[in-house]
Amino acid sequence: MGTPRDWATLERLPARQLHAVQDAALRRCVREELYPFSNHYRRVFDEALVRPDSIACVADLQRLPFTTKQDLLRAQSTPETRYDFVLRPSPDRIRAHWPFSRKLALVLGGARAREALRFQYTPNFLTFTTGRSSEPVGFAYTPFDLQVLQQGIARMFDIAGLDPSRDRLVNLFPFAPHLAFWAVTLGGFETGALVVPSGGGKVMGTDGSLRLLERLKPTVIVGTPGFTYHVLRRGNELGTSFANVHTLILGAEKVPPGLKDKMLEALRKGDAGEVRILGTYGFTEARMAWAECPNADNHSTGYHLHPDLGVFEVIDPKTGAVVPDGEDGELVYTGILGHGTSVLRYRTGDLCVGGITWKPCPNCGRTLPRIGAELRRVSEQHALSLTKIKGTLVDLSVMGSVLAAMRDVEEWQVVISKRNDDPLELDQLEVRVAPRVGVDVGELATRIQHDLANATEVAPNKVHVLTLREMLEHLGMESAMKEKRFLDRRPKS
Ligand SMILES: [Zn+2]
Hints:
This protein is of the alpha/beta class and 493 residues long.
């Protein structure tokens, strides 16, 4: 039980009180939900010899091990463990673990209380992870969880400064069992704002999405950074008006620096006035997303969190130790208000620059904790054999940021292969780019070599300059669920 807190009060509470709200929700969640109803976490607590009622505050979580993607994959690989992360109450467990008042309410409530229990604990929806390297993992929601997500996204609309009675949103996220599409859809259901999906490149296509924009004249466009920019650029070619657009909300992938400027330029070409562009961060395992707040020059003050719904810890990815506020580290997430598939201390694999802060937002004044907007995947450190001597560690996300930020690069892709497709040969790094119209191609290729070598200490073996049309084809902009920025074509050993 428990419901999301009154937002207007919560978003301005002093940090000390927010901590208290969070600790109370965590205690309740561990004692009355996770420990009694999750097979996985009951085992984790028992093996670590940690009593659930000894977890009093967020710092106490450090006595428990992390949950990894491998744990989730392992659980779903056998029929006996498939539901180990799903909260499944039983009369015995309720009797053994719920406080007297809650049990009494259940008994006295009769049929209505039993129906409420079903609403809270029986899954009726799933979304899936979109891992490129592993099996998708399904995350179950109960009707209660859908309400929590719905309210979380309503908060996001509020942080984005939207007015549900006037704003019209076009949702460009791919129509799929993924968090992003459904989060925006549910946000519309909750707030009553008009939210119209195009289904993205694979469903309505770019030109179809633009016809929808022409017809609806939206004030807000929501989508992935790559596809949204592609739609804006194509809109410029077709002469689409963006005159009504005042906000872009980007999600599902990080927004590379420099891309906001390119988007603004395309919007201005379509007669838009002041437009605020904000990024969001969310992931399947949290069944939630968080937003930047908008400001005049589109700089970021970080993602605003919901301290009553979840806990973020920031850890040193090597040692696993929690780092002090304000320091870089990997984000670790614990949901504290939710049923269905529930995770505790889940390692996201996302490195957050600047970590977490509990200082009020200098832009909007909300007191909610925030995490830094610059995120990198831990796993995007790829070992490449570029010389006979040793493997070189290359951070592909840094490489992507450099390319996306270049004003003269319209689209890009990084391809890793083996020389002559021979598994025993050296690795080969190839960059494909579509340049902006009128750019000196030879000079651009040299500049890319130079900038990449500076940022990552590795220069590509080759820079291929392609036409925009060829590039869009390679990226799968209209055919794939998300564009293919990094291709690893090395034979699997
Ligand atoms: Zn703010």
